[in-house]
TrEMBL record:
Matching InterPro entries: Dimeric_a/b-barrel, Tscrpt_reg_AsnC/Lrp_C
Top-level division of the source organism's lineage: Bacteria
Protein's organism: Cellulomonas gilvus (strain ATCC 13127 / NRRL B-14078)
Protein name: Transcription regulator AsnC-type-like protein
Example GO molecular function: sequence-specific DNA binding
Pfam families named in the record: AsnC_trans_reg (PF01037)
Transcription regulator AsnC/Lrp ligand binding domain ranges (all copies): 10-81
PANTHER family: LEUCINE-RESPONSIVE REGULATORY PROTEIN, TRANSCRIPTIONAL REGULATOR AZLB
Cellular component terms (Gene Ontology): cytosol
GO biological process entries: response to amino acid
Gene3D superfamilies, per the entry: 3.30.70.920
Length: 97
């Protein structure tokens, strides 16, 4: 099912005093699968998973960017997913040969 989903990683700068409220509001948006508070140059990272390319604009530009307390977003579209789970399955099938 997840194979035909489009994934975007959204880096979010927020009003520092509102990080928990902003994260909770973003997590409620349909299409947002996870929101992480992180250290570093941004305050939050959201994972957005949708079926259609057009939905990315609906979720990110029309919903995430307009949450009160969001100052800036930067979006990265995932081309290919690599995960330990996928690697474990490949090795279990003997594909390393």
């Amino acid at each position: 099912m997840m194979a035909d989903m489009l994934t975007a990683i959204v880096l979010i700068d927020t009003d520092a005093a509102r990080i928990p409220e902003v994260a909770a509001a973003i997590a409620e948006i349909p299409g947002v699968s996870e929101v992480y508070s992180v250290t570093g140059e941004v305050d939050l990272v959201a994972m957005v998973r949708v079926r259609e390319h057009d939905e990315l604009a609906d979720v990110i530009a029309d919903r995430v960017s307009k949450v009160e307390g969001v100052l800036r977003t930067q979006t990265y579209i995932a081309f290919r997913t690599y995960s330990q789970h996928d690697l474990d399955q490949a090795f279990a099938l003997g594909l390393e040969d």
